[in-house]
Amino acid sequence: MVAFSSFVGPFVPELLLLGGMLLVLLLDVLGVRRNETLATVALTALALAFLSILGDLGFAPLGVLATVGPGALNVAPAAGAAPLYHLTSFGLIFQAIFLVAALLVVLASSSRPSGERGAPIFYGLLLLATVGMLLVAVASDLIFLLLAVEVVGVPSYLLVAYRRGEARSMEAAMKFFIVGALSTVLSFYGASLLFGAYGSTNLFVIHAAAASVGTPVLVLVGYGFLLAGLAFKVTLVPFHAWAVDVYDGAPTDVTAFLAGGTKKIGLFAFFLVFLGPVLLVHPATAGASPFGGGPLDLGPTLSIALGVIAVLTMTVGNLLALLQKEMKRMLAYSSISQAGYMLIGVTIGTAPALTGATLQILAHVLMKGGAFLVVAGVAGLGIGPLIDDWKGLGVRRPLLGAAFALMLLSLAGVPLTIGFVSKFVLFSSAVQAQGWFIWLAVAGLLNSALSVFYYARVLKVMYFDRTDPIAAIEAPPASGLGAGGLGYGRAAAIGLAAVLIVGIGLYPQPILGAIQSAAQHFLLTGV
Amino acid sequence: MDAFLLLDQWAFLIPLLMVVSFALVGLFGTRLRALEWGGWAAVGIGGIAMVLGVGIAIGEMLHPGTYVNAQYTWLHLAGTPGPFPEGISLVAGTLVDPLSALMLLVVTVVGFLVLLYSIGYMHHDRGLPRYYAELSLFLAAMTGLVLSNNLLEFFLFWELVGVCSYFLIGFYYEKPSAASAAKEAFLVTRIGDVLFLLGIFIYFFHFATTGPSGGWAANGFVFAHGTSPFLPTGSVGSSTLLTIAGLMILGGAAGKSAQFPLHVWLPDAMEGPTTVSALIHAATMVAAGVYLLAVTSVFIGFTATDQLAIVAVGGFTTFFAATMAVVHPDIKRVIAYSTISQLGYMVMAVGAGFAMVGLFHLFTHAFFKALLFLAAGSVIHALGTQDLFKMGGLRKPMRVTGTAFAIGGLALAGIPPFAGFWSKDDILGSMYGELGSHPLYWPFWILALLAVFLTAYYIFRAWFLAFGGNGPRDPTLPPAHEGSWVMQVPLVILSGMAVFGGLLIFVPGFQGLLLYGAGASGIPPVYGPTDLALSGISVTLGAAGIGVAYWLWGNGRIFVLPESSPLQPVRRLLLNRYYLKAAYDWVGARAVYGIARGADFVDRYVIDGTVHGFERAFGAASDRLRRGQTGVVSDYAAYVIAGLLGVFVLLLLVAPYLLAHLGGT
């Protein structure tokens, strides 16, 4: 394996973001609290970090860029080495996706009312959470990974509550925190059990040792705890219940960040933790189930369990989304069901499946993040939380309506959007993998068909249920912002997401190819 | 000469133009000072599309049997060991061949005429921009479907056609009946769509590695390769799997083309504007199903069992739908049932292996059916009612419309030399030649023949009721008048096509459009009446139908079936549409809403109940949690614990069980 030193050096994007965060907090102390200024600082930090990641990707598209182990910097993982930090091109792609999510949210937030309280806290916490997200993408040690997840988790609890005095947000934050803390405990307990079984928390070591240690029940229980703990982040059923209340109660821009951004780190953690064992097939060391039944084989057992959870998640999410009357709750449930699709990638564990899951994650950043940004903007126009309150919006605001319609169509997996491309890749990877994986494709397709109903209902309300069109057109926008009350930053963020949704949908090949080779490389060299 | 072949490369412009029209009118139509301007923009763009479509058709006539394939690779997945060793490609492209050229001619010409006519018909409607936007998108979807060069693209446009029809049928969405008709059309055709998709999957897997240059999957499942079908002809044989796939395709076609038992949506789709009905029934939506069968039969092929099934569905539907048209009092619904019935002829012909004969009937039918609908639209526009029993004597104030409806009726009834005669006779004659080798085709052929009589009867019953007699039976109706020139011109043009359209088969150039792969895929071209005795029988049946209609309804007579007549139960059965719709509604209401309610119930009672159960079980710990926080949070914590236990059950019990029974990976 060839090692490349990173083009811009390790930790540069993370340091840039930390610098940005400190600057934001410093400005706060100095009394500069203008929303635009703070947003510009945050945007600059994020953009620089994004560019440095693109630089790394362009410099060595398929290298293991850097590893950091005890006492070693910038060396390839030698045989038996146990690095904490392991930067692959696949991880870089995820870092880029995370930054896109953060960029969209900050861009949109730049057009929030200038005098709002808590703005410095908002940008500071958002940048800190983004640092944690970037760290997740390079982890190769369980403790490092879980700590990075916490670096994301703690700021995001606070982000939900950054508008002090709003009872709903506070309540949501409290719920988020308590359930989050509980699942952190589960994750760490799982990690400690694995440490007990393998004598290391390093993922390379664990995956290598799994072949020789076999599958004692201890390992399975350890993975079970980890699964439960991380499933909280990804909002997998039955660990999804918090998500709807939190997404609903949080300020909507924060919701966009949670649904579009932080949720995805859980999936990358799933890749890191479960791909190794899922791909492991060694029937020779299979133990017997303590409860009777067939032999226990770690890889297939985990894979089937993940498959069951994936199908359960997409189905339950979809069915409950079907019954929602509020826009945010509908989108939250749809977000849960989308997590089910993404989990298919880990369940199958082949390069095409990983490609599909990654594309789905990118798609979800654009379409769900974008959709929540639209919801936040529309709330600023004085439109209520119910789906029915969106009556005639598509006619009154043709461009905003068209962008939101695009996001919904993409969520439903309609062709010429990125949502179709990702689902197509994901489901055909299930078909390519054969065996019982084909049922995942079947379940996914049926669920996609089901989801069309609730997305189509919103489109119908937006375009066909009209209040008096003349009166609505002449109603003044609620805020004094540009772009018809949306604010230019938000309009730009929404437009950017919509353009990317269609652009990648029409011409997916470059991104698809890059992710495909990175995923292949990740499976060969990665964790 | 070669300019036409060059034009074929640019065929994608036709759907693109209509998309542009959709975006233009849809986004900015409401901003225009006069709402009609958006309409005229759509008419203008539709006109350009028509010129291109006619040009492509002329090119195909000049170069019979040419294929021009233009495509770009949309996305490519690398190959893995398994069913797709060379990977999977998706391509977007157009294929211009005789099939698509003929359809393009129909769709763009009828589409343009409907767009033009609508300026007059819809001028009073405030939703005009929306109407033109949706109509443009509908035409974009249909032309895209016709030009698709692979099955997946075909399916995408197929779905788009379905969505547009949903919007257009539900155009008057404030009317509950229109909204529910739109929903019904969408749901019923969706059943067909799911079947179609399954059929596509079977074909994809079965033929993934078949064919030249790396197999079908690696080439994006395109229909044609060079100048021949991509899949080797005759590759279908009699495999059970492919028979199932063929039946799935039939299901898809039956949904879109309203064949029994998925025909229920079409009569209700009359809730849309009449112009939309004209388009749906003549050139777009319902034609898509027949076109699908034709494309499949030419490029993939059906097994013998499939063929019999298709002939059976088509032949039965022909008769079945005609019986329901016999008693209906609504002018549009009578025509709607006639559409189902005529589609049955086409389906039957394609099933028996005469794809081009079926498409020829589609061609003639498109014009005379559009004519009938637009004529009916003129009547409705003038009177504001669709009830035949309120009308009467309209032939005097509405001379153009009355003549047009009569010409359409004669064409539908299969009276020579009107268009319908040639194509319908072609179908009956071609089938007749096959009956010797396929004895099971007999009953369906006879049903189709009997339907000729019924067709002639019901359409002239409608004519005599509306246009015959001395004056309206309902004196409260407004005085009838002709529509403006934009409504009359399409009627005149379509009348011309209904008179002369069938004679086109004697034009050598036009034959090129019907010459699909003659020899290559073994589809014999048949022109004109092959069997004079047979033609005699069918014309006699048609004439008899008209005669009976005149005897019962002519000169303002009203035929009332006596209460004591033994035919009363039959009449009731027909009026209630064989009670099929009621049965579907019953099942649908229970199945669909039942699932949603069930999910709600589970979430509310079962899951919550379980969680509260765990709470009680955890007792003290749970209590301590709850004292600190709200009850809801401790619920969620309990969720997590319950979920954790669930994960253990899954890992230790369920997964090994599934592994043992699914046979591992």
Give the topology string of chain B: H per helix, E per strand: HHHEEHHHHHEEHHHHHHHHHHHHHHHHH
- Report strand order across the widest sheet of chain A: 2-1-3
CA-CA gap between termini of chain A: 14 Å
Low-confidence stretches of chain A: 1-5, 69-77, 281-295, 469-474
Number of continuous helical runs of chain A: 20
The two chains with the largest interface, and their residue counts, are: A-B, 77 and 59 residues
| Spatial ordering of strands, largest sheet of chain B | 1-2
Helix content of chain B: 55-70%
Structural class of chain B: mainly alpha
For the sheet with most strands of chain A, the description reads: 3 strands, antiparallel
State the separation between the terminal residues of chain B, measured CA to CA.
58 Å
DSSP E strands of chain A, number: 5
Choose one word for the global shape of chain A.
globular
Instruction: Report the radius of gyration of chain A as a whole number of Å.
Output: 22 Å
The total count of helices of chain B amounts to: 25
